[in-house]
From TrEMBL:
GO terms for biological process: regulation of DNA-templated transcription; response to amino acid. Transmembrane segments: none annotated. It holds the Pfam family HTH_AsnC-type. It comes from Silicimonas algicola. This is AsnC family transcriptional regulator. Residues 5-66 form the HTH asnC-type domain.
Length: 153
């Protein structure tokens, strides 16, 4: 169920998404309000879970993580024990930036960021040694066209 927010909340959220490190004064000025009401709204949205943790967005290529793979996984096993083992393996791997369970022919898709193809192979070999997987297809991203964490609030 979607939380109830008004237009001022939306403006505040857009500013936080744009740059959460900006000062409360700057946010209040941009959204056309004063500092105290903006702070109260931010606190309320944090308390309700609308606003989660704040992080820094790093440039993976500048840090040497030049290869981004999308990994399509099909499994023939759907038991709770297998799924728990699989999820534990995914959560323990820092290379996995995203993991989604899908409807359709593919069971899971992973977004994996590594230094190069050799590093992907090491990730792949480690994963299949921990959990049995029916079929894996890895797709190398040739170019990132759009990547954002901003929601259209």
């Amino acid at each position: 169920m979607a939380a109830r927010i008004d237009e001022l909340d939306r403006k505040i959220l857009r500013e936080l998404q744009r740059d959460a490190s900006q000062s409360l004064d700057d946010i209040a000025k941009t959204v056309g309000s004063s500092k105290t009401p903006v702070w109260n709204r931010i606190r309320k949205m944090r308390d309700s879970g609308i606003v989660g943790r704040q992080t820094a967005i790093l440039d993976p290529e500048k840090l040497g993580f030049e290869a981004c793979f999308f990994v399509l996984i099909r499994t023939s096993e759907h038991e709770a024990e297998w799924q728990a083992k699989f999820l534990k393996a995914l959560r323990s791997r820092p290379e996995v930036l995203e993991a989604h369970r899908l409807a359709g022919d593919i069971d899971y898709i992973l977004k994996v960021r590594v230094r190069n193809a050799r590093a992907y192979d090491e990730f792949y070999q480690a994963l299949i040694s921990e959990v049995r997987i029916y079929n894996v297809t890895a797709l190398l991203s040739m170019e990132e066209i759009k990547s954002t964490t901003d929601l259209p609030v």
